[in-house]
Amino acid sequence: MIVFPAVDILGGRCVQLIQGKRETATGYGDPLLCAESWINQGAEALHIVNLDGAFGSSTLNAEKITDLIIQTGVETQLGGGIRSLHDARSWLDCGVDRVIISTFAVHDPDCLTTLSDEYGSDRIMAGVDAKAGEMVTHGWEKPAGDFLEWANLFIQKGAGSLLYTNVSVEGLCNGIDPIPVRTLLRKVSVPVVVAGGITSPSDISILKETDAAGVVLGSALYSGRISLREALEAAG
């Protein structure tokens, strides 16, 4: 199972949010330095989020993120503010291994087919952001229906993997809720990376037992609740 340290970027800084709310941002400095720190500690992959894009300014941080991708050279997946085919193509062309498409995929599921045909399904990850079993979009503000139905539709349309985020526990550092993860993994056949609430090695061990393909570590990692070494050991 792959461990993805999160490098969330807002206003050019690496930050962590609570429940996706901008006003809760805690800053951790230069994104490239944060990324290099995780790599030096053993990370072989990064989860990058352009938070300015998620809040409506998709071009902000583009130069900084492109430089980060080139400088680190590790596996990268990127989301945040991808609202068009142009946005997705731009990131894929700059070298990111996978783009994560959430709200755009809900509005236009056929975008997954187009991008999968052009770049290969392994580079197209659909974001399944769920709260109490319901897909949520637009910064986790708008409900959109059953998350399992959306997950299956995304796969049918060409997504080669899914990022499942449990919005109910995201950023709170109170642990995971494994039930929806198990439910999702029983229903789909593509790799699923899990985010939201992962706080301890036992959380990671539980997710490994579900056959999750990877985990994203954010607030718990940056706050020191879990070390990258502990996470990597639990992930095997």
UniProtKB/TrEMBL annotation:
CDD domains, sorted: HisA (cd04732)
Gene Ontology cellular component terms for the protein in this record: cytoplasm
Enzyme Commission number: 5.3.1.16
Positions annotated as active site in the UniProt record: 8, 129
GO molecular function: 1-(5-phosphoribosyl)-5-[(5-phosphoribosylamino)methylideneamino]imidazole-4-carboxamide isomerase activity
Protein name, entry field: 1-(5-phosphoribosyl)-5-[(5-phosphoribosylamino)methylideneamino] imidazole-4-carboxamide isomerase
Keyword Cytoplasm annotated: yes
Entries under NCBIfam families matching the protein: PRK13585.1
Localisation: Cytoplasm
Encoding gene (name): hisA
Catalysis: reaction(s): 1-(5-phospho-beta-D-ribosyl)-5-[(5-phospho-beta-D-ribosylamino)methylideneamino]imidazole-4-carboxamide = 5-[(5-phospho-1-deoxy-D-ribulos-1-ylimino)methylamino]-1-(5-phospho-beta-D-ribosyl)imidazole-4-carboxamide
Pathway the protein contributes to: Amino-acid biosynthesis; L-histidine biosynthesis; L-histidine from 5-phospho-alpha-D-ribose 1-diphosphate: step 4/9
Keywords per UniProt: Amino-acid biosynthesis, Cytoplasm, Histidine biosynthesis, Isomerase
UniProt xrefs under Pfam families: His_biosynth
GO biological process: L-histidine biosynthetic process; L-tryptophan biosynthetic process
InterPro entries named among the record's database cross-references: Aldolase_TIM, His_biosynth, HisA/PriA, Isoase_HisA-like, RibuloseP-bd_barrel
Family (UniProt): Belongs to the HisA/HisF family.
